[in-house]
Structure formats: structure tokens, C-alpha cells
Give the backbone structure.
Amino acid sequence: MTRTRSGQARDVNLLRGGTRRILAAAAIVAIWSATAFPRGFSQETKPLDTPPPASAYAGDAACAECHAQEAKTYEATAHARDSSDASQATILGNFTPGKNVLRTRNPNLIFAMIAAPDGFYQSAVNIADPQHLTGDAEKFDIVVGSGRHGQTYLYWKGDELFELPVSYWTYTHEWINSPGYADGQVDFNRPAEPRCLECHATTFQTAGPPSNRYQRSSLVLGIGCETCHGPGAEHVARERSAHPPAAGSAEIAIMNPVRLARDRQLDLCGLCHAGPGIPIAPALSFRPGDDLARYVKITVSPPGAPVDVHGNQVNALERSKCFTSGRLTCSTCHNVHESQEDAASFSSHCLSCHSEHACPRFRQMGDSIRTKCVACHMPVRRSNAITSGLEGQVLQAEMRTHTIAIYPDEKGTTE
Ligand code: HEC
Ligand code: HEC
Ligand code: HEC
Ligand code: HEC
Ligand code: HEC
Ligand code: HEC
Ligand code: HEC
């Protein structure tokens, strides 16, 4: 019945939730195991940790046919726009002469970003002898990042994918050395690994070795519906058939994360929002509903260590006392089908568990406190993780911490 690789953890988890949840979740396990595999492909013969074939995916356009409401608002989200083909519209950096240059610690080396008729290029230039490029010039092929903090770019060499050495930094609207690159050196050879694309694209087929070799046409950019709902070709086929199954039925063949136990919901977001970790199974073999620990060894920093506010919202949230409520998940505050930009509006979610009177500050602030919970209890912090050398400087992204706690110095005035 249960998929052995995740069944055990799921059951242990369920025991905490009482009989009703056990029954509800047993039904889900049954649904998922009955439908997660294409017909004629028996579960017993499925090797552990196999990424789905390209044919298992239907693509966002298919979902939009029947789920127009989700599809319409989803297009504008950072997830949907997270990666894309490089173009004038998607590359945020400036190609205007004068602004198209990154100076480096090496006085003779600059990078020039060039808009040519056939595309956009990054090239390393030896200033001592400007007629001679160093020989390193590569095209922007793929943009990673909607640009909330910055963007990094990838290029194809044959069917191998590499990172470009110059990135874009939204805070200062400048070109910078790509995170982790040594300032003053030319390096066009850093491979773009499957784990990078697992977090920043919907699907792809690997063709390695080496590990950064892909079937180019299989790469679907942007984070699509099927990242969180699982490959949907079977669901689409069944819904288009003469006898379409109903939501929650055993035949629906699509995962609605709301039906998962809390830990499995957190694992779904945690695939990408719990830090890179150490992959222990092939990229894309994790499916919604699986136990993440079997796919990625998540590295958790010790309690008391400075909380890294980049990319590890799961770990940060788990450190909150609120988490002990047993109910808090990412979906308590985030509806991932729409872009939510307004921090003040998030405070309404605190009030689903707390009364404003619970906060001693209510006495001074009165009703105005209702939109400021997040400002004081989830303050913006500098990230230790997205840093980049720019002429020797360390740049730090600013992010909202997900450890909900008491920060006595916060005045609640940042909104
Ligand atoms: C031909 C129409 C059709 C297409 C195409 C389609 N769906 Fe559905 N989907 C449905 C219907 C009908 C339901 C059941 C809705 C209900 O009863 O509330 C459903 C339900 C769902 C649910 C909820 C399942 C549950 O058990 O609660 C999710 C999630 C979902 N679809 C996602 C997708 C995704 C992702 C795609 C694209 C891969 C997609 N759908 C494509 C018709 C479609
Ligand atoms: C574990 C999953 C994971 C891996 C691996 C990963 N990223 Fe990310 N990345 C994220 C998440 C999640 C964010 C958003 C962070 C946030 O807002 O807290 C992000 C943010 C970014 C951003 C900033 C996006 C923006 O709009 O501001 C860039 C650029 C980026 N990643 C590039 C890369 C590249 C290039 C690689 C691989 C070489 C990579 N990342 C590897 C998950 C990952
Ligand atoms: C980042 C993950 C993520 C992505 C991407 C995503 N969803 Fe969802 N979706 C969820 C979660 C989580 C839920 C359950 C929401 C909740 O907890 O109420 C959900 C619920 C749904 C439901 C059930 C809604 C209901 O009211 O029962 C449908 C239908 C759906 N999504 C369709 C889509 C479609 C279509 C897309 C692409 C346009 C999409 N989703 C993209 C995470 C995602
Ligand atoms: C496949 C990897 C992946 C999964 C799974 C994923 N995310 Fe993300 N998420 C990202 C990346 C990458 C970004 C950065 C997007 C950018 O700006 O380029 C991001 C950005 C976000 C943001 C900030 C942007 C915004 O829309 O406000 C939120 C919030 C977020 N994710 C919540 C979630 C939640 C909740 C889930 C689980 C239901 C989830 N994510 C699942 C990769 C993922
Ligand atoms: C799902 C319910 C839930 C939500 C949503 C929630 N909390 Fe909590 N919160 C709790 C519980 C339970 C505790 C622990 C109470 C205790 O230990 O007495 C708690 C504790 C706290 C504490 C005390 C922390 C400490 O370190 O002493 C603060 C402050 C707090 N919450 C603020 C917030 C804010 C602000 C939000 C919104 C951003 C929020 N909470 C959202 C349930 C929740
Ligand atoms: C108690 C409410 C709450 C919960 C629960 C919550 N978030 Fe958030 N999240 C916020 C707020 C508030 C922001 C800041 C929004 C803003 O400033 O526009 C935010 C921002 C984010 C961002 C963007 C960070 C950045 O600055 O780049 C990501 C990514 C994110 N959340 C992911 C998650 C994930 C994953 C979970 C579950 C582990 C989660 N959140 C749970 C309230 C919450
Ligand atoms: C101006 C900053 C500020 C704002 C705004 C704020 N808080 Fe607080 N809150 C604090 C501080 C500081 C404490 C610690 C007690 C103290 O020093 O007064 C606290 C304590 C708490 C506690 C723990 C009380 C206890 O008995 O341990 C909860 C729960 C809480 N706040 C919830 C909220 C909620 C919900 C909101 C929004 C309606 C909110 N807070 C808005 C600063 C703030």
C-alpha cells in the first residue's frame, strides 16, 4: 500500500495527530500511492528515487485550461518568474555604455556586458590591451532569479550548462561578481549542477556525465504548477476523459498539499527553502508528499547560532515558539498562487492565533498594533548567505527572519 521509502515516517508522524487525522491521512496515502504512477507502471518495479520522465508532465498551459483562477494570478509570482530565457525583458542589468562594466580587484581586468544583434554577452577584457579580449566571452542564455535580490546567469556550451561570472545586484542596480567567485579572476567554468535547477526550474532530463549535461529541450524554466503538485499529465488525461474524477477522490492523480500532514507540507517547501543541504538522491526524484530527509541531508545550524535568514525559512520557523502550536505551516501566511508583497497585511495571520491584547505593547499602541506584529516579531535581517565581492566589499541581502520571537530593539516603524 504505502510507498516503503516514505511510508514509515509518515505513519509515525500521523500517530501524533489523533484518530481522525490518521484516518484522513490513511486515505490520502491510499490516493497518492494509487495514482502517483502512470498506468502500467507498477509501484514494485519502480526503482527508488527515479526522476519522472518528461512525458509525466503536462505543463502550466494545460493546468490553466481548467484552473484559470490560480493560473492567472500565479503568472505574476516570483516562483513563476524565477528563471527564464535571457532577453532584454528578463535581464535586469544595464547594457548602456558606461554602466555595462564590472571593475575588479585586478586593475587590468574588467568584465563588459554587451548587447549584440544576436544576443547578450559577458566578456572578460584586458584593459592593458583592450583590443584583445582575454578570449573569454559567453552568451547570457538563462536568467536565474526574478530579481527581488539579484540575478545570476547561465550559459550553454554544447549541452553542458555553466554559470556566468557576473551577476546583477538589485539593491544597488549594479553588476557584481557572482556569489562565491574570486574577485579579479576569470572563471567561466563553474558547472550549473542539477540541485541548482531543481530549486530554480520545473523539470529537466539529465544526460551526464558530467553532471551539468542536460537534454537541452527538456529544460522547463520557471517554477511551475507541477513542482508543488507533482507531474500532472495523468491528472489532465483523467479530467479530460468521459468520467472525470472528483477532488479528493482516489483517482484524481494530483497532489493537493493541504491534505498532507504538516511535516510533509513543510518538506515540500523545504525542498528549496531549507538550504541547499547535501543531495542524497537524484534531483527531481522528490515528489510532494515524500519525506525530504530521504532525498536531501538538510544541514541544521546549532541552536543559538546566528540565524541565516536566506533560504532557510523552514529551520527558522521551526525555532519559533509559535511552531509548538502544531498548526503553523508556510500556508498559514503564504498563498503561493498570488504575489503577496505587503508585509503589513501578514499581521492578520498572527491574529488567527493571538489576540492583539496578548502583546504588552498594545497598551501604548492601541489598535494601530494590528498591522505591525510582523515588523517587531519578524524583523528584516541581513543574510549571511547571499554575499558577493564587489571591489572587495561584502554585499548582504536583506530578508525577513522567520523565527517569530521577541526582538526588544524593534520599534515597529519599518512598515
Ligand atoms: C481538464 C481539466 C483539468 C486540467 C487540464 C487540470 N485539472 Fe486539476 N482539477 C480539475 C478538476 C475538475 C478538479 C476537481 C475540482 C473540484 O472538484 O474542486 C481538479 C483538481 C485539482 C487539484 C485539487 C486536488 C484535490 O484532491 O484537492 C489540484 C491541486 C489540481 N487540480 C492541479 C492541477 C494541475 C497542477 C494541473 C496541470 C498539470 C491541472 N490540475 C490540470 C480539472 C483539471
Ligand atoms: C536548495 C535550493 C536552492 C539551490 C540549490 C539554489 N538556490 Fe538560489 N534560491 C533558492 C531560494 C529558495 C531563493 C529565494 C531565497 C529567499 O528569498 O529567501 C533563491 C534565491 C536565488 C537568487 C536571488 C533571486 C532573486 O530574485 O532575488 C539567485 C540569483 C539564485 N538563487 C541563484 C542560484 C543559482 C545560480 C544556483 C545554483 C548554482 C542556486 N541559486 C542554487 C533556492 C536555491
Ligand atoms: C510553490 C508551490 C505551489 C505552486 C507552484 C502551485 N501550487 Fe497550487 N497549491 C499549493 C499549496 C500549498 C496548496 C494548498 C493550499 C492550502 O494550504 O490551502 C495548493 C492548492 C491548489 C489547488 C486546490 C485549491 C483548492 O481551493 O482546493 C489547486 C487547484 C491548485 N493549487 C492549482 C495550482 C495551479 C494551476 C498552479 C500553477 C498555475 C499551482 N497550483 C501552483 C502549492 C503550489
Ligand atoms: C522548486 C523549489 C521551490 C519550492 C518547492 C518552493 N519554493 Fe518558494 N521560492 C523558490 C525560489 C527559487 C524563490 C525565489 C524566486 C525569485 O525571486 O526568483 C522562492 C520564493 C518564495 C517566496 C518569496 C517570493 C514571493 O512570492 O513572495 C515565498 C513567500 C515562497 N517562495 C514560499 C514558498 C512556499 C510557501 C512553498 C511551499 C508551498 C515554496 N515556496 C516552495 C523555490 C521554491
Ligand atoms: C498557528 C498559531 C500561531 C500563529 C499563526 C502565530 N503564533 Fe505566535 N505563538 C503561538 C503559540 C502556540 C505560542 C507559544 C505560546 C506559549 O508558549 O505560551 C506563540 C508564541 C508567540 C510569541 C512569544 C515568543 C517568545 O519567544 O516568547 C510571540 C512574540 C508570538 N507568538 C508572536 C506571533 C506573531 C507576531 C505572529 C505573526 C507573525 C504569530 N505569533 C503567529 C501560536 C501562533
Ligand atoms: C507567520 C507568518 C509567516 C509564516 C508562517 C511564513 N512566512 Fe514567509 N514571510 C512572512 C512575511 C511577513 C514575509 C515578508 C513579506 C514582505 O516583506 O513582503 C515573508 C517572506 C517570505 C519569503 C521572502 C523572503 C525574502 O525576503 O526574500 C520567503 C522565501 C518565505 N517567506 C518563505 C516561507 C516559507 C518557506 C515558510 C514555511 C517554512 C514561510 N515563509 C512561513 C510571513 C510568514
Ligand atoms: C513595537 C513592537 C511590537 C509590536 C508592533 C508588537 N509587539 Fe508583541 N511584543 C513586543 C515586545 C518587545 C514584547 C516583549 C514584552 C515587552 O517587552 O513588552 C512582545 C511580546 C509579545 C508576546 C508575548 C507576550 C508574553 O506574555 O510573553 C506576544 C504573544 C506578542 N507580543 C504578540 C504580538 C502580536 C500578535 C502583535 C500584533 C498584533 C504584536 N505582538 C505587535 C513588541 C511588539
Remarks:
- Residues 216 and 273 are 26 Å apart (CA to CA).
- The radius of gyration is 23 Å.
- Residues 1-46 have pLDDT under 50 and may be disordered.
